[in-house]
Specification:
111 residues; alpha+beta; 4 strands
């Protein structure tokens, strides 16, 4: 059996669910093969540039996420939103996860 967790590295809801996914993965690691599949809601034409209106949208959603899940967003995250040059792009983080997964799979084959 295998579980595929499709997530977006830029998604606050995915971030808030990360502890649950980690617990499931750890609890069933001997019974179920678990794979993280990074996807992207902010790719290509959907890349988001920081604007005051978009910062308000993110803050409102993060407050809701925290109320529902208890997962906090740190000040480092919010400091990123103060930089008007910030671009939210899912691709770099998705690439990084894919590279780590490939390296991990390669190491498992060697060992």
């Amino acid at each position: 059996m295998k579980i595929y967790y499709v997530m977006d590295v830029m998604c606050g809801w995915c971030y808030s669910f990360s502890d649950v996914i980690t617990k499931i993965s750890e609890e069933f690691k001997d019974q179920i093969d678990f794979s993280i599949i990074p996807a992207g809601m902010w790719l290509g034409e959907n890349i988001k540039k920081i604007t005051p209106k978009f910062v308000d949208f993110i803050r409102e959603n993060n407050n809701r996420i925290t109320k529902l899940s208890g997962k906090e967003f740190g000040e480092e995250f919010y400091s990123m939103l103060k930089d008007k040059e910030t671009i939210l792009d899912s691709l770099p983080g998705s690439k990084a996860i894919n590279i780590i997964n490939k390296i991990d799979n390669y190491i498992k084959i060697i060992i």
